[in-house]
């Protein structure tokens, strides 16, 4: 039985422990999270354990990625539950800095990743990826892990972080983990806790819709037709669709006509007050 993971709150402590591990030749993985951990997060920790000797999980609800009208104040938090789950997986270290440790009052630097952030979530949440790239760059430089693990649930974010690390020559291998879902297909998310009972019953339609479109496109057909009927199905069920699009899986170039590339279907929609996102790969044509 492994003990509770050591929890630290300062960058100085983090660096001391990492230096010790490096001295032993350990391979280090970082899993950045905002806490309220569920099986999606835990799958990334398991992937990290498989690929590295030491696993650091960061828990930081990053104010820089929330717009003023968004849910920073009410974002789910569950420190005790998080620690229990991380202990059960044998996590080596939890880094849970306070806001002031990450952002001193005169903090003045902002990282902007262009191109990849033009559409999808970048359009409706223009502040979001800058906030994410800035905090992840800081976490990478604070920890200097060999690898960092991100979920394909936030597929655009995964590509943005990979591009940021490459562009800034931060030597961290950015790995993606598959989307973990509830039994009915709903992608696990800390924000699912906001859904009412009735919304929760309707929520899996987002996954069903992107899956149906992906399957249809792998057979044949016009992207725009499938998107149109998908939008209509979601609207009928009370979803307020932000986007439903098919894009190139490598660089997020929008696709039209028929699919001929590694493609993914991406969706974001409001169900009541809860913003849900999902994406699936278009299976290769046989
Ligand atoms: P968050 O705490 O929402 O910032 O998420 C932290 C990490 O967990 C990100 O890399 C997410 O993509 C990943 N993640 C969240 N939900 C899931 C899920 N259902 N399946 C796989 N990864 C996930």
Determine the mean pLDDT: 95
Termini, distance in Å? Answer: 48 Å
* CATH level 1 name of the largest domain: Alpha Beta
Number of domains: 2
The biggest sheet, with number of strands, parallel, antiparallel or mixed sense and barrel status, is: 6 strands, parallel
Which parts are unreliable, with pLDDT below 50 for 5 consecutive residues or more? none
Roughly what fraction of the amino acids lie in strands?
15-25%
Please give the number of β-strands.
9
Q: Bound small molecules, which ones?
A: adenosine monophosphate
Radius of gyration: 19 Å
CATH topology of the largest domain: Rossmann fold
- Find the structural class using helix and strand composition: alpha/beta
Keywords:
6-stranded parallel sheet; Pantoate--beta-alanine Ligase, Chain: A,domain 2; single chain; Rossmann fold; 10 helices; globular; 286 residues; alpha/beta
Please tell me about this protein's structure.
- The chain has 286 residues and is an alpha/beta fold.
- The chain has two domains: 6-177, Rossmann fold; 190-280, Pantoate-beta-alanine ligase, C-terminal domain (Pantoate--beta-alanine Ligase, Chain: A,domain 2), CATH 3.30.1300.10.
- The protein has ten helices and nine strands.
- Strand 5 (147-151), helix 7 and strand 6 (173-177) form a beta-alpha-beta unit.
- The model has no long low-confidence stretch (mean pLDDT 95).
- It binds adenosine monophosphate (AMP).
- Residues 33-34, 40-41, 43-44, 150-151, 153-154, 177, 179-180, 187-190 line the site of adenosine monophosphate.
């Amino acid at each position: 039985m492994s003990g509770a993971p050591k929890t630290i709150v300062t960058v100085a402590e983090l660096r001391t422990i990492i230096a010790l591990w490096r001295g032993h030749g350990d391979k280090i993985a970082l899993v950045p999270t905002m806490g309220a951990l569920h099986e999606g997060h835990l799958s990334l920790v398991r992937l990290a354990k498989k690929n590295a000797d030491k696993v650091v999980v960061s828990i930081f609800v990053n104010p820089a990625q929330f717009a003023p009208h968004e849910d920073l104040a009410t974002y789910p938090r569950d420190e005790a539950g998080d620690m229990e789950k991380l202990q059960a997986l044998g996590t080596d270290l939890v880094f849970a800095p306070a806001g002031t440790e990450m952002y001193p009052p005169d903090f003045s630097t902002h990282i902007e990743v262009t191109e990849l952030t033009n559409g999808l979530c970048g359009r409706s949440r223009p502040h979001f990826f800058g906030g994410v790239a800035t905090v992840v760059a800081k976490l990478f430089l604070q920890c200097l892990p060999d690898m960092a693990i991100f979920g394909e649930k936030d597929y655009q974010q995964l590509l943005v972080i990979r591009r940021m690390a490459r562009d800034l020559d931060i030597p961290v291998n950015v790995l993606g983990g598959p989307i973990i879902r509830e039994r009915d297909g709903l992608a696990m998310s800390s924000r699912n806790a906001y859904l009412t009972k009735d919304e929760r019953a309707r929520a899996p339609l987002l996954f069903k819709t992107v899956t149906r479109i992906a399957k249809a496109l792998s057979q044949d057909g016009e992207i725009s037709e499938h998107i149109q009927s998908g939008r209509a199905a979601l609207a009928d069920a009370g979803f307020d669709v932000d986007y439903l699009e098919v894009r190139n899986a490598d660089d997020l170039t929008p696709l039209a006509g028929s699919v001929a590339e590694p493609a993914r279907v991406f969706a974001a929609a409001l169900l009541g007050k809860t913003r849900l996102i999902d994406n699936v790969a278009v299976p290769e044509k046989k």
